[in-house]
Amino acid sequence: MAHNRGKSVALDGLAASRVQRRVSVACSGFLAAVVSCIAPHAAVADGPFDNSIANPTIATASSDWVVTLGAWGNISPEFSGSSHYDLGGSPIVDFHRVGDKEWLSLPNDGIDYELFSTDNFRAGPVGQIRWDFGNTRDRGLKEIGNTGVDLSLEIGAFVEYWPAEWLRTRLEARNAVYGAEGWVFDLSSDFVWHPTTQWTVAAGPRLSIADSDYMNAYYGLNAAQAESAHLSKYEASAGVRSAGAGLYGEYKWTEQFSTMASFEYERLVGSAGDSPLVSEAGSPDQFTVSFGAKYRFVWSH
């Protein structure tokens, strides 16, 4: 989902414009609360989720699909580099054929589709959507007509490699094709641990690198922007954007229901950290806390 972001400093006084977004978050929180209330009374699965028998009471065929639906709710910076935090949310949608491998998906991952995979490797296209409701154009986002919806779209490719069953490495290369501009490269590595058949825990480092166009979309200030924000004009340059770490936990209450929690920290460095938006009006230390719930079922056709 990603988790898991681009809001102008001029938006600090526009809390009323976030009502629609918070409705989405409230729905996400309600779903998580319902699952948390129901799950303790459900039977705990005796083993890990089996893709070939997503619902033990229903006979499945290889042509059937395992569908996962859910939602994330999160607390994250209003924009990359902000010292103010806001509520957000995103849906969880995943599907694969019965019998296919189910890969670990973290909230900061982009929306991907695997075109090629083996037992420990997969690759394919990936996308990232950044959005918000507001009356003023966000940093790195553009308003769609006069709808009040500010959006940025990044598309590219991903590769994911598991050198061992307990280690996941992933690279996403995305180009901002709407809203922002430029390329960003996100690298992550996670140590994956299953303390019990119900628990999945993952933790590891993060690194983000971007070109000058991408850096300026989020951290640069032209003359008009600098005057409006009462800050110095600034031109960002290519390089390392941020470094940090993430922690993820998932608990499978049943074969169908799971609840998740995630904590992500990133430190803006280099040209991003030196931006007046960050060094004078914001903070280089960025935190995102997320909670989610998802439900699996078999779709036959």
3D architecture notes:
It contains five helices and 13 strands. The radius of gyration is 20 Å and the shape is globular. The N terminus is likely disordered. With 301 residues, it is mainly beta. β9 and β10 form a beta hairpin. Strands 1, 2, 3, 4, 5, 6, 7, 8, 9, 10, 11, 12 and 13 form a 13-stranded antiparallel β-sheet that branches. It starts with 18 loop residues before the first helix and ends with a strand.
- Principal-axes geometry comes out as globular
Measured as a percent range, the helix fraction is 10-25%
| Largest sheet properties | 13 strands, antiparallel
The secondary structure category is mainly beta
Give average pLDDT, whole number.
81
The portion of residues forming beta strands comes to over 45%
Number of helices: 5
What's the count of strands? 13
- Uncertain runs are 1-59
H/E element sequence? HEEEEEEEEEEHHEEHHE
What's the end-to-end separation, in Å? 26 Å
Q: How much is the radius of gyration in Å?
A: 20 Å
List the helices and strands and how they pair.
Elements: H1 19-38, E1 65-77, E2 85-97, E3 111-112, E4 116-117, E5 121-133, E6 142-143, E7 149-164, E8 167-178, E9 183-193, E10 199-210, H2 212-219, H3 223-229, E11 239-252, E12 257-268, H4 270-274, H5 276-279, E13 285-299
Antiparallel strand pairs: 1-2, 1-13, 3-5, 4-5, 5-7, 6-7, 7-8, 8-9, 9-10, 10-11, 11-12, 12-13
